[in-house]
Amino acid sequence: MSLIAVGMVLGAAVVHAIWNALAKRSDDALAYFWLISAAALAIYALPFAFLATEEPFRWDWLRFAVASALLHVAYFVALARAYERADLSFVYPVARGTGLLLVPVLAVPLFGDRPTAIAWGGIALVAAGIGWFHLPVLRAVIARSGLRDLISMPALLTGLIIAVYPLNDAAGVARAHPIVYLYVVYLLDTLIMAPYLLLRRRAAVRRTMRSTWPVLVGGLGSFGTYLIVLAATRLAPVSYVVPMRETSIVVGALIGARVLGEPLGRTRLTGCALVTLGVIAIGAGG
Questions:
Q1: Which spans in 112-235 are helix H?
Q2: pLDDT digits (tens, 9 = 90+) for 135-156
Q3: Domains of the chain, residue spans
Q4: pTM of the model
C-alpha cells in the first residue's frame, strides 16, 4: 500500500473521529446528520459544479450512487438510534469494528482483492487492537444486558451497513469522479430524509441549527473524509483501506485523553500498540 494512500486514510481517520464526537454531543443525532449532509452540499457545490461538466451522468455509476444514498440513510438512522441508547465509547468500536472484520472478507470475492499474508496479519492486528481497546466496555455491556441484547443493538446493525456501503462505493468511484459521485450521494440522501425531518422533527432541526460551527465542521469533515477514503480505494485495495480507516477509533480515544482528560490506561495503550503495528503491516504488505 503506497505511503500516499496510507497518509490519506490516516488523516481521514482523525477527522472522522472528531465529527462523530460532535454527533454524539449534538441535541439530536439524526437532525445533526441531515444538517451536515445539507451543509456539505453547500460547501462542496463549487468543485462539484466544475467537475460535473466533465462527468457524464450515466446509469453505469448512478445506480451505485442511488444504492449508496439508501444505505447512508439506513446508516444515519441506525447510528442515531445507537447514540441515543449507548455511549460513544461503546457504539463507535462495535459499529466500526464490525465493518472492519467483514469488508476484507467480502472484498476478496467481489473485487478479487488478494491481500498478502503480511497484510492479512495487519488486518488481524488492527481488529485485535480495537477489540482489546474496548474489551472492558464490551464486557460490562454483555454482563449487564447479555450477548443476545448486544447482537440486537443498533450499533451492530450500523456495523453491518458499514460493511456494505464502502464496497458499493468503491465500485461507484471506479466509474465516476469521486467528488461528483459522492456529491450525488449526499444530494439524494438529503432529499430522502428531508420530508421526515422537516415535518416530524422540525423543532430538533431548529435546535441543532443553532450550533453553527459543529454543523459546518461535520459537513466539511464527513464529506471530506469519505472523499479521501474513496480516492484511496483507487490507489489501494478496499480490503486494505477500510481496516486502516478504522484507526479513527484509537484516534478518538487519544483525543479524549489529551483534550477531555479521559483515562488512558494499560488496556488502551496495548490496543493502540496493536493497531499501530497492524497499520504498519498493512502498509508494508500492500
A1: 117-133, 135-145, 147-151, 154-173, 178-200, 202-209, 212-232
A2: 666 666 666 655 555 544 676 7
A3: 3-285
A4: 0.75
